[in-house]
Amino acid sequence: MEKTKSSFVRNFVFGVEDSLVSTVGLLSGIAVAGIERPAIIMTGLVLIIVEAFSMGAGAWLSEHSVEEYEEQREMPWLHAFRSAVIMFFSYVLAGLIPLSPYLFASSAVAFRLSIILTLLALILLGIFNAKMFRIRSLREAFITLLIGGAAVLVGVVVGNIATHLT
Questions:
Q1: Reduced to 3 states, what is the DSSP secondary structure of residue 90?
Q2: Which of 50, 77, 78, 105 could form a disulfide with 109 if both were Cys (CB 3.0 to 4.6 A apart)?
Q3: What whole-number distance in Å separates Cα of residue 78 and Cα of residue 153?
């Protein structure tokens, strides 16, 4: 049972972190490039759904392969399916955090709010992860925040470069 719990938590944390970082990085990059708000929203939704499906499929394949190899369960596909569902929904729900400001605010306000909400969510994810695995909360929150902050920075830099190339 402990292995199942750690697998589910791993897929949840991975889905949330990857979605927050990927989505805010992309949205920040295209917002800085001056893309109109409707196109930002459409791009964000496409990214979230396609990546959630991809991540869910990857979770299913990796969990299924490991369980088949280790021959641990009578129905390894069921555990793999649960892992895939956790990955899919954690990715979709987390992706809505950086996207949501673009649904109700101007691009300039949404850009800042998206980054702030994402960084706060990353801090909370770090604390959640620390609590689940009984490790130091502040350290884990700080590491998770640094990773997300780096993604925002990469998105903004690439968006600025792309603006000057076109």
A1: helix
A2: 105
A3: 39
- Each of the 166 residues of the chain gets a pLDDT tens digit; together they read 566 777 888 899 999 999 998 999 899 889 988 899 999 999 999 999 999 999 999 998 888 777 777 776 666 677 889 889 999 999 999 999 999 999 999 988 999 999 999 999 999 998 988 888 788 888 888 988 898 888 878 888 887 788 788 7
Query: Residues near 99 by Cβ (< 8 Å), separated by ≥ 6?
Result: 23, 27, 41, 44, 45, 48, 114
Global confidence as pTM? 0.87
Tokens in use for 24?
């805010």
Phi, psi torsion values for 25, nearest 5 degrees = -65, -50
Q: What's CA 19's distance to the chain center, in Å?
A: 2
